[in-house]
Every structure is written in structure tokens, then in C-alpha cells.
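lol ok so funny story. i was supposed to be doing the assay writeup but got distracted and ended up predicting the structure for this chain instead. priorities right. anyway since i did it might as well share w the group, maybe its usefull for someone
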Amino acid sequence: MKIRSLTVFQIPVVLRKPVRHASHERSDNETFLVRCELSDGAVGWGEGLPRTYVTGDSTASSWRHFEAARFSELRDAPWNSPDEAFRVIHSWHLSEVLPDPGISVRECFGNPVRCAVELSILDAVCRSASVSVSDVISRMPEFGTVTEQSEVVYYSGAVTSMSPRKQLLSALKMRLFGFRQVKVKVGTEGVDDQGIMRRVRRIVGPRVDLRIDANEAWKPEEVADRMRPLLRYQPTSLEQPVAHSEVAQLSEVRHHLGVPVMLDESLCCLEDGERAIQSQWCDLFNIRLSKCGGLYRSAQLAVLAKAHGLGYQLGCQVGETGILSAAGRQFACSIGGIRYLEGSFDRFLVREALTKEDLTFRYGGRAPRLKGPGLGMTVNESTIRKIQVREMPLIRP
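and the output, tada:
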């Protein structure tokens, strides 16, 4: 089983509505899709979204990674099963490239590229073997402490930074849609944190699990004061309250909050997780496939968290297409113990679908296991080729 061709496409993704939080406001984004074709004709797809303020990756630096990477190592690598292919892809290393000016990088630099390449090859290999990606994850011994097959998973809703009227409308949608869990974005300039929490809790009721995401908005010395008036609304976690550059101060701050702390922008790779555990920075990991470098590295983070008594959620990035939605579903249906689950917002958020299947969650956030081979979705390749900004062959046939 060999890779016949590998191609990357840069794709503009337009959102149905702007999404605003303390770190950014976004109405569109650029994503990278990778197409892998094997020698037997099987085709797979992967996706990665660069975020400069998360992993240090921009559209420009990601393209430099694609240009510099030694894809011949993947083309020539032998594998006889999807399990072996998964490990080979994980052991492949990107060539070093310079980040954009002013960007300080850490070990997660290049993770969106890793994710897109990994998913495309794994999707193709699993299609060739007529197995799903979740089946492969579930049988790999290195993930044995966290694997658990699920036929149905439940996604959570989100109330982002917006006007009081839109907060009420958004909270009402959360209630009418029957979500069990809702994330509330706080810390945005001009938005009253107490007001948004009060409105959301009043609308969704006392039984819904509310959690808070500050997106690096607060200074370490003010986190406790910021959280104190919000505790009456019974949040179950506080996500990334401080900037990554100040994350070390959470080792002291978190003991005075009365709510578990989750890392997101500061949790992008195994090294981040190990530092956080050693220095006691958090109680939970927010694992997101693109920022964490794909399925294998994300599963490693779940294993690490469980081994040290921490919780974890599977998050998503704004603007993910159906390819990453499908990959997230495969992960969620094969990894147990996920505290919160985000993603599959497809038709609610992305204007133009790139998959033939509608992967959007249903009432209550309910979403079934994807039964097909590979990632379990079918890509509209003609749409991708129509809207792509540029493409580049990584491995030529």
C-alpha cells in the first residue's frame, strides 16, 4: 500500500455569521485541505486550520511548511495495515521553517499541517481496508486506557460575545434545542460578564451544565475577582483565563477560584500537557484536533490527562468544515471520558458545505456514530476545486 499522490488546497471558508470572543472576531477563515490518493485508487481527505494566536501558525507559515516538508518519507514508508500507517504518520516530522515576524513558537508549531496530512492518509488507508478510523483508534494498545466505543455522542452549545438582546436569543435557542451543556464566552471588552451569565442561566434553567471560556482575557491577579460574582451561576469549569505567556501563574491562582481550570491556547501538544501537569496549572485539557496535530497526538493527550487524574474535552475551532467534523466524531466515538464535546456546527455556521453528508448535530446535540469507512464522509471534490485559492502537489503521481 503506497501513496500515489498528495495535494494541498487552500480554501476560503465563509461563516453564516460573525463569531466573537475575547481573542478574536471571525466572519471567515482560510483552511487547508489535503487530498491523498493511494496506489489502489482509495482517496482520503484531511483538514487543518492555522491560528497564529494558538499554535503560532499562519496561512503563510503553513504554506512554507507544506513547501519544505519531506513527503518522500511518507511516500516510501512501508505499511501493511491502518494501524501501522497511523504510527508511521505520527513518527513523521516536519522540516523547520521560520514563523511569521514577531511570533514565538513552541513544539506545536506546524500542528495544523500535521493534522491535515495525517487525516488525509488515514482516511485513505482506512477506506482501502474498509474500516472506520474509530475502529482503528479503538484497537490500538497505546490508547487502551481511554478507548471506549460509543454509538451516540452529545455535543454542547455555545453563547458567544454579543449584545444583550442577542444573548437572550442565543440562550433561548440553546434551551429550545435541548442542549445538556452550554459554553459561555466571557472577558470580551464591552460585554458584561455577569449580565451574560445571568441571562443565559435564567433562560436555560438550573439543570444545564454551564461552563465559561475567557479566551486569555484576564490578568492573573484579577482572575479570582472576575470569577467571584460568576460563581452564583454554577459554572463547572473556567477555560484559559489568562494569556499563554502568563499561564505559569495559574499554579497559584487556580486554588482560589472554586471552579476547575481548563487549558486551551496553552494546551497544544504533549509537551504542553506535561508542563501543565508538572507545574499544576490546570484540572482539564481542551483537546482540539487541528491545534494538537491530529488524531494520534490528541489521543496521546487524553491518555496523559487520565493517567494524572485530569479531565479533558474535545473542542473545535471556528470554521471547521465537515472533514474535521467527521474526524472529531470518529475521536468522540472511540475515546471515552470526554467531559465536554464541541463541534459539528456545520450547517449552522459554515456557509458552503464541502461534504455530501450533513454532519450537523441533531436535537439535544445528539450525533450518531459515522458508519462508513475512513472518516465516514464523502467530500464534494468539485466544490473544493471550484473555490480553492491555490493548490500544490506534495507527492506527484
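The chain has a mean pLDDT of 95. The two ends are 14 Å apart (CA to CA).
back to the writeup now i swear
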